[in-house]
Amino acid sequence: MKQTFYERLGEAVYQETLPNGLRIYIVPKAGYAKKYAFFATRYGGMDTRFCLDGEWLDTPAGIAHYLEHKMFDTKEGNALQELAKNGAEPNAFTANAMTGYYFDSTDHFEENLEILLSFVSIPWFTEESVAKEQGIIGQEIRMVEDNPDWQIYMQMLKAMYSASPARTSIAGTVESISHITAETLYDCHKAFYTPSNMVLTVVGDVDPHHVVDLARRILPREGGPVIPRDYGTEPEEVAQKEVSCQMEVSAPQFLTGFKCRPAREDEDHLRMEIIGDLACDILLGESSPLYLRLYDQGLINTSFGGAFETMPGIAYLYAGGDSKDARAVTAEIVKEAKRLCEEGIDEDFYQRLKRAAYGDNLRGLNSFETIAISLTEGYFLNFDPLSFPQVYESITKEDVVAFLRENIREDRMVLSEILPKEA
Amino acid sequence: LEMTRTMLAEGVYLNYLPARKFKTSVLSAQFVTPLQRDTAAAHALLTAVLRRGTVSCPDMGALSVRLDKLYGARIDYTVRKKGENQCVGFVASFIDDSFVPGGERLLEPVAALLGELICDPVTVRGRFVPAYFESEKVNLIDAIRSILNDKRDYASSRLLQEMCAGEAYGVPRLGSEADAEKITLKKLHTAYSRLISTSRLELFYSGSADLKRVEQALLSAFATLPRESVQGIPATAEHPARQEVKYVEEAMDVTQGKLGMGFSCGSDDSAAILMGNTLFGGSSNSKLFMNVREKLSLCYYASSVYHRQKGIITVSSGIEFANYQKAYDEILVQLEAVRRGELEDWELEGAKSTLLNAYTSMGDSQSKLENFYLGQIATGHSESPEELAEQVRSVTPERIFRAMESVQLDTVYFLKGKEAEA
């Protein structure tokens, strides 16, 4: 077992790859009562078109999420109840490029881990149990449809992308999920839930060897083939400049997005993510000159914020919140990016932002979930997330300016708005 | 898990929770004051105005520079409702000394800034900066209105307002829009002077520094805090049982209906009610989850919360408009099942271990610890998580059934779609 000690972070990571291809990470945390396990597959909402046994399959939007719901069913009943007996409350999420199953518990950890690994690797669906889920997920979809934060975000992605499956909601629509059958669920499980497409991460005061032995004993002996996926060919241009709708909200809201160059799937990925985050902070973060000015002018309030995101084949920087004049705010963002490119970034400002960003990343390591998810993403995309202190040191102001110059431009920008319903 | 509580000055207490395992330290300063209709909005506004600037850092830019240099230390203002008290103040979080390059110490400068935010706000002619007051007043009104945006939160908040109308518990955390509108600069100043001189101040620290150092840092940070006739913490009143169930409906242009049901709990055996509620709707293995969601596929979420500090239970669920009666009936059927003891052994075991798991792992999160102890203090309780865990361990099924007998439907709130009106 490989062991890496990150001295500056005070963390150690054990790493093992089983003969079936499963990657395992164990992060020992002395002094904590809770132990956390995260079992994830590289399969998410965007993976609707893929090649299985030489044949290209188009599956319904929302199927990865549907599968996540149904994985809890077991031949004997339901894994939720099995874990419940031990006080562990398991849960799961489906992201664009990942589905993760997890629990934390203070007692019976190994027993719970065994249940987790079993139910995620052994599918058990019937036509009846699949049909039953339509009502539950249908209401989950209705719930997010009434949520303005979700609507404004989906609207932005649809405006930005014309081919990428990021345009489609992870949960799909009530219509698209009506086409899901037990058979398609089995196909997707067979393709993506193979040990070689998965990662197990355990965080807590555990014996790393026990975890590895347990995974070796429970999981299938064989891995699976690499599954080619099709994310479409996304042009550089945005699909639509502006999009808006009306909802029952208290005030107008907006999100502006800038379509960025996608990151590579190697060590450069972490570098680009950090550059994107820094660019976002420098351009419009809480201590940026632009934020302070717009806040003083009453054009934004504390709801305003931004982030840089990457998904397979795409990347974007976005920002928004409540505002009575979204157009004025977006014009100011573009202007500020231009100014930074022309005048450069103030050295003091840059140094203190880097310092603050370092503190933020370190803070993230308090969360077992953050540690597990970032190790998993790092494995899928071939980078080491815990190397961030070194990456921060290697990034210069010029890197950030180059990012702003390339990506934060009027022709890369979209505006998504939600306006209050007129009475 | 050890907590040391010491009195630093009249009505000023430090709750010290030593821990070495975190990357960060947390330092929190909270005033505990009765939740009242006429002061709630003013106190909420006050924290936001104070966060705009101090004498030494007179604007948000200067504050940001100072915080960034402290390795991205955060100081957020908080407004929380704990029982019938409102807790207002600041929570600071900063990386623990052992991770600061160059061995710099962050506790002292962060504590000093916390003290300045409370005792030394930037003023113009003895009053808060008018521009800060005006813009934060607009922001507060926007924030109060924005509860509408999340329909789940909105429905829960409306249920409590209706169920506890006329009680302090029905007052929203941030106060009401109408009350916020009425605040003047002068009134805000009066509220400020009264709050900082007469309200209990509870300080919390979690991190690796020793007690002496934390006490010194805070004594020096709050040296100028005025203290006169400090008020005690009032108890939360019991919810008066209703003779007839109150039904409230509201229509909006939404695609999903939100059903909220409020129940009064006559029994004061709170450990037994806590267990009963966990069995009823407090976990993903509860009666509500397994039946309303899994068996009948009526919803994505159906869950219940026991408001231990007030002695009530609230249920919330998102459903098709047309399934109102079905969901309503099934929720009551499941409550009845818990009362009658129609429970499998694993459900009882599961509910117990779910609660024990939560108490045992409390010490793994600094924000949970801070929030937990603040809640205890603000409602006159002193049990540690271990003691509460012990209470849960000793609960018998008979006590659960007896305590749940006292749970009575009180108020029903339904948010429906506009088309459903016809």
Please explain how this structure is put together.
The complex is a heterodimer of chains A (423) and B (422). Chain A has 423 residues and is of the alpha+beta class. Chain A contains 15 helices and 16 strands. Helices cover 42% and strands 22% of the residues of chain A. In chain A, strand 9 and strand 10 form a beta hairpin. Chain A starts with a strand and ends with a strand. The mean pLDDT of chain A is 95. With 422 residues, chain B is of the alpha+beta class. Chain B is 43% helix and 24% strand. Chain B has a six-stranded mixed beta sheet with strand order 1-2-8-3-5-4, sandwiched between helices. Chain B has a five-stranded mixed beta sheet with strand order 9-13-10-12-11, with helices on both faces. Chain B is globular, with a radius of gyration of 23 Å. The model of chain B has no long low-confidence stretch (mean pLDDT 95). Classes of the chains: A alpha+beta (423), B alpha+beta (422). At the A-B interface, helix 2, helix 4, helix 10 and helix 12 of A face helix 2, strand 5, helix 4, strand 11 and helix 12 of B.
Name a few traits of the molecule.
heterodimer, A: alpha+beta, 7-stranded mixed β-sheet, 15 helices, 16 strands, 42% helix, 22% strand, B: alpha+beta, 5-stranded mixed β-sheet
- Give the biggest beta sheet of chain A: 7 strands, mixed
Please mark out the parts of chain B with pLDDT under 50 across 5 or more consecutive residues, or reply none: none
Strand order of the largest sheet of chain A: 1-2-3-11-4-10-9
Number of helices of chain B: 15
Low-confidence segments of chain A, given as residue ranges, are none
Assess the beta-strand content of chain B as a share of residues.
15-25%
Q: How far is the first residue's CA from the last residue's CA of chain B?
A: 58 Å
Rg of chain A, alpha carbons? 23 Å
Number of helices of chain A: 15
Shape of chain A: globular
- Provide the succession of SSEs of chain B: EEEHHEEHEEHHHHEHEEHHEEHHHHHE
N- and C-termini, Cα separation of chain A: 65 Å
Q: Give the % helix of chain A.
A: 40-55%
* Total count of strands of chain B: 13
